[in-house]
């Protein structure tokens, strides 16, 4: 048996076209969702992400502003720009591409963004809201995973869900979202003992580790749903996930890399930006 491939590219296109349709309607009421993207320095991977975010904005009919700041930008200058954007009526959402250079505190940047414009959902106010289950914005990668499992009618309710990875941007919020949907959630990390046994319990296994091919077929229960969040490069420089592709033969559903969870992330950023615009105009 080979798993059903969960097609994040196709779902992403579908969601973006529904966002565009909604944006066209909002524009008739004089509202255009606007996203400001800030990048400090010239990390090549960050530059690609920022370019893709600008492209997605255009696809969804959004207004966008990009601020490419030199690596020497001071923290005060950056916080000054964020403050200006917090007050800009054209801007519904603000995103500062991480990582920032070492002389700038990442947490200070996150804290400076108005929680109502925090479309990455990294601000402690939004993190807290996710914890209590009453949230406006969800971090984009876990939100994309939930959209994918819904599309394939996979219900986490009562299921053993194992999330490998406990980062603030993926593992922790992913676990909370599965918990809110009544999954029985186990969160694993580098100190977890008997990881292979824990993973084998999973009906839904999410890998967010950052190590190519880390999840091998012997760690997966027959018929499990396997979500691969990892974006790594193998020795040949090819993009690959955290899950060994051979797991396809054991899983019932699985996200490929590339083309699974990855494409959903920026689309969920667009969804959060649309939502921010609606919230700021009292439409929700
Ligand atoms: P982090 O490096 O922040 O977190 C990795 C997590 O994996 C940590 O919690 C770490 O544990 C855990 N881990 C590392 N080694 C092991 C091990 N041997 N056994 C068990 N757990 C382990 O990464 P991110 O969460 O930011 O990203 C994870 C992956 O997802 C990366 O490949 C990244 O590129 C990708 N990614 C993809 C996105 C997308 O758009 N699809 C967006 C964001 C990330 P500990 O906490 O103990 O150190």
Would you write up a description of this structure?
With 284 residues, this protein is α/β, with parallel strands linked by helices. The protein is 40% helix and 15% strand. It is built from nine helices and eleven strands. It has helices at residues 8-28, 44-59, 75-86, 106-112, 124-132, 140-151, 171-180, 195-200, 261-280; strands at 4-5, 34-40, 63-69, 93-96, 160-164, 184-188, 204-207, 225-228, 232-233, 239-240, 253-254. The strands form three sheets. It has a six-stranded parallel sheet with strand order 1-11-8-7-5-6. Strands 3-2-4 form a three-stranded parallel sheet, with helices on both faces. A two-stranded antiparallel ribbon has the order 9-10. Strand 9 (232-233) and strand 10 (239-240) form a beta hairpin. The radius of gyration is 19 Å and the shape is globular. The termini are far apart. 43% of the residues are buried. The model has no long low-confidence stretch (mean pLDDT 97).
Summarize the structure.
This protein has 284 residues and is an alpha/beta fold. The chain is built from 9 helices and 11 strands.
Order of neighbouring strands in the sheet with most strands: 1-11-8-7-5-6
The global form is: globular
Bound molecules: NADPH dihydro-nicotinamide-adenine-dinucleotide phosphate
Please report the total strand number as a whole number.
11
Helix proportion of residues, in percent? Answer: 25-40%
* Main sheet: strands, sense, barrel: 6 strands, parallel
How much beta, percentage-wise? Answer: 15-25%
List low-confidence stretches.
Answer: none
The secondary-structure class comes to alpha/beta
Number of helices: 9
C-alpha Rg (nearest Å):
19 Å
Instruction: Give, in order, the helices and strands.
Output: EHEHEHEHHHEHEHEEEEEH
Distance between the termini: 45 Å
Mean pLDDT: 97
């Amino acid at each position: 048996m080979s798993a059903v491939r969960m097609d994040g590219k196709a779902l992403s296109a579908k969601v973006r076209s529904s966002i565009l349709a909604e944006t066209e309607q909002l524009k008739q009421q004089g509202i255009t969702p606007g996203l400001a993207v800030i990048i400090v320095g010239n990390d090549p991977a960050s530059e690609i992400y920022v370019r893709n975010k600008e492209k997605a904005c255009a696809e969804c009919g959004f207004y966008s502003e990009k601020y490419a700041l030199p690596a020497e930008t001071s923290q005060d200058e950056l916080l000054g720009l964020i403050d200006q954007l917090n007050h800009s009526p054209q801007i519904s959402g603000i995103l500062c591409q991480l990582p920032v250079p070492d002389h700038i505190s990442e947490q200070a940047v996150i804290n400076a963004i108005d929680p109502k414009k925090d479309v990455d959902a990294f601000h402690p106010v939004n993190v807290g809201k996710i914890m209590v289950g009453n949230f406006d914005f969800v971090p984009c990668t876990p939100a994309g995973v939930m959209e994918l499992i819904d599309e394939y009618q996979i219900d986490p309710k009562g299921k053993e869900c194992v999330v490998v990875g406990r980062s603030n941007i993926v593992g922790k919020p992913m676990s909370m979202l599965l918990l809110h949907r009544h999954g029985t959630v186990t969160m694993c990390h580098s100190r977890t003992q008997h990881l292979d046994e824990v993973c084998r319990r999973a009906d839904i296994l999410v890998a967010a580790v950052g190590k190519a091919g880390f999840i091998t077929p012997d760690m997966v229960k027959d018929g499990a749903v396997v979500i691969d969040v990892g974006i790594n490069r193998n020795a040949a420089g090819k993009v690959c996930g955290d899950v060994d592709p051979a797991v396809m033969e054991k899983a019932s559903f699985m996200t490929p890399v590339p083309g699974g969870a990855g494409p959903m992330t920026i689309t969920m950023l667009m969804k959060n930006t649309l939502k921010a615009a609606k919230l700021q105009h009292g439409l929700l």
